[in-house]
Amino acid sequence: MESEMIIFSGNANKPLAQKICNWIDMPLAEALVSNFSDGETRVELHTNVRGRDVFIVQPICSPANHHLMEAMIMADACHRSSASRVTLVAPYFGYARQERKSAPRTPITAKLVADLLQAAHFDRVLTMELHTSAIQGFFNIPVDHLYVKPIFAGFFTNIENLCVISPDAGGVERARAMAKHFNCSLGIIDKRRDKPNESDVMNIIGDVKGKNCLIVDDIVDTGGSICKAADALLAGGALSVRAAISHPVLSGAALDNLNKSNLKELVVTDTIPLTQAGKACKIITQLSIAELFAKAIRRIHHNDSISALFI
Ligand code: R5P
C-alpha cells in the first residue's frame, strides 16, 4: 500500500508551501520550527511521520545559513521519527553560485551543501533552475530539476521583434531554450566580474537593433547585471528591455538599482518571497511556481515521470 504524503514547511517561504498544499488540496502539516533563546534552531514535529512520504519545503534563501540549518534539523527529526522518505523541496538552491573553484584557495559551496543535506538524511531533492544543471551530480541521491520556461513562456506572449538575451556566457543554454520556444533570435552579453557582486558589460554578441529584448537568467541579486545589460542593449539600439529571472534574491541596493534602471519590466517567481519594498517596486511582477511544484510533488509521491511535465 502507498504511504501517506505529508508536507512541512520551514520558515524560508511558508506562503509558497501553503500555496503548494492548496493546489494538492491537503493541509500543511503542523510543526514548530523556532529558536532556542541562544538562537539555535528548535524543531518539534506535531504530526506523526512514521512510515510516511515527507516533503519539506524550504528554499535556501537569505538568511541562507539559518534556512539551511532549519531544513537539515527538520530532516533529522523526520528521519529519527521513522519517516519512510524525506524530500527537500528547495525551489531556490542557495550557495549554488560557488560550484567550482573560480580562484585559488576558494571553496565549492554547492558540493558542501549537497553533502550536508545528505548527512542530514534527505533522501531526494526537488529544485528549480539550478545555477548550473551539473550541480545535480554533486548529490548521490535523486535530484528532480524543474524548469521555469513554461511559466515565463506563458507570460511573455505577443512581444514583437523579440530577442532573448543571456546576460553572460554561463546562461546561454537557458536563454537558448527560451529563444527556441519563441522562435526568435538570441543575444549574449559578454559580462566580466572582477569582484563579487560587481559586473561590467564588455560587448553584446548578436544584433539587438530594433528588438524588444528579454533578458533570461537564474538569479537577480544586486540587479547590477541586468541593469547594466539594459543600458548596453538600449545603447546598442534595442527598443525595450525586459527581464525574466527565476530567483529574486534582491540583496543590497537591488531595489534602488531596479527603480533607477532603464528596464521596462522584471518578472520573477515566488521561489523566494519578496519583501514589502520588493512588492512595491513598480517594474516587478511575481509569478507563482506553486502549481508546478504541486504537480511535481504529486508525481514523485506516485512514482510518475517528472519530465512528462515539460513535454
Ligand atoms: C551569475 O552568474 C548569475 O547567473 C546572475 O547573473 C548573478 O547572480 C546576478 O547577480 P547581480 O544581480 O548581483 O548582478
What attributes characterize this protein structure?
311 residues; alpha/beta; Rossmann fold; five-stranded parallel sheet; 9 helices; globular; binds ribose-5-phosphate
Distance between the termini: 30 Å
CATH architecture of the largest domain: 3-Layer(aba) Sandwich
List unreliable stretches of 5+ residues. Answer: none
Rg, Cα atoms, Å: 20 Å
**Quaternary status of these chains?**
single chain
CATH topology of the largest domain, by name, is Rossmann fold
* Fraction in beta strands: 25-35%
Bound molecules: ribose-5-phosphate
Number of domains: 2
Strand order in space, largest sheet = 10-9-8-11-12-13-14
Q: In which range does the helix fraction lie?
A: 25-40%
The helix tally amounts to 9
Largest sheet: 7 strands, mixed
Topology:
Layout (H helix, E strand, L loop, with lengths): L4 E5 L4 H11 L6 E5 L5 E5 L7 E5 L6 H17 L4 E6 L18 H11 L4 E5 L14 E4 L2 H7 L6 E5 L5 H11 L2 E11 L2 E8 L6 E9 L3 H12 L4 E9 L5 H6 L5 E5 L6 H5 L3 E4 L2 H12 L10
Parallel strand pairs: 1-4, 4-5, 5-6, 6-7, 8-9, 8-11, 11-12, 12-13, 13-14
Antiparallel strand pairs: 2-3, 9-10
Helix pairs in contact: 1-9
This protein binds ribose-5-phosphate (R5P).
The site of ribose-5-phosphate (R5P) has 16 residues, from strand 11 and helix 6.
